[in-house]
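dumping this here so i dont lose it again. seq + smiles for magnesium ion
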Amino acid sequence: MQIKAVIFDLDNTLVDFMKMKREAVAAAARAMVDHGLPMSEEDAYRRLFEIYDRQGIEYQEVLDHFLKEELGHLDHRLLAAGVVAYRRAREANMVLYPHVKMTLMQLIRRGYRLGVLSDAPARQAWGRLASLGLLHYFDQVITHDDTGKWKPDPAPFRRMLEVLDLAHDQVLMVGDWPDRDIQGARNLHIRTALALYGSDFDTEDSGADFLLHSVDELLPILDTLNEGQHPGCC
Ligand SMILES: [Mg+2]
C-alpha cells in the first residue's frame, strides 16, 4: 500500500521542547531572584524542575506552586516577574529542529497529508503550533484531550487513522519516544521512523523501521517506500 500520510509527534520531534522549557524556567528563576526572591537562581531552577517532575512537564501552576512552597504565601510581585519572563523566553526559544519546515513543505508539495499526534493537552499543543507558524500545515491534529489516552494506548493512533480515513499501512509515524510513539504505532502495524535528533531515550532497541538523524531523511525514505510515486503524482 502506498504511504499517503505522515503522522508526527510534536514535542522533541518537530519542536525542541526541552530547550524551550529550560530557557523559560531559567528566565523565570532569574527574574524572581532579581525581584527579591531570597535564593540563588540555580536553586530556584532546580526546585522548579523538581515540581515539574512531580506534577508533569505541562503543569501550568508551577510558579504559583513554587512560590507558595518556598515562601509560605503567593507573592504577586514575584509571580508577575516570573510569569512575564517565562512567557518571553518561551516565545523566543520555541524553535523547530533544522529542516522541519522545508520537509513539511516538500511533503505537502508531493501530496502527502500530515498529522500531529501529541500527548500534550489541546491548548498547549495548538498554542505551540500557532507560535511556530504551523497551524495550516496539518490536516489533522489529535491531542490528549481528543481521546483522554496517552500513547502507546491504541486509542489516539486509531483516532488518527479514522480522521485521515486511511489504513495502518498507508501512514508513517515519526516520533522521538520509543515506548510511546514507536511502540504505540507498531501495535497497530503502522510503520515508524524514530527522530534520533530529538530523542533522549535509549534508542538501541526501539523497534523503529527507520532512524532519522535529521527530519529531511524522511523524503528519500518515503521515495523508497512508495517506489518514487508521490501520492500527489499520476
Ligand atoms: Mg515527543
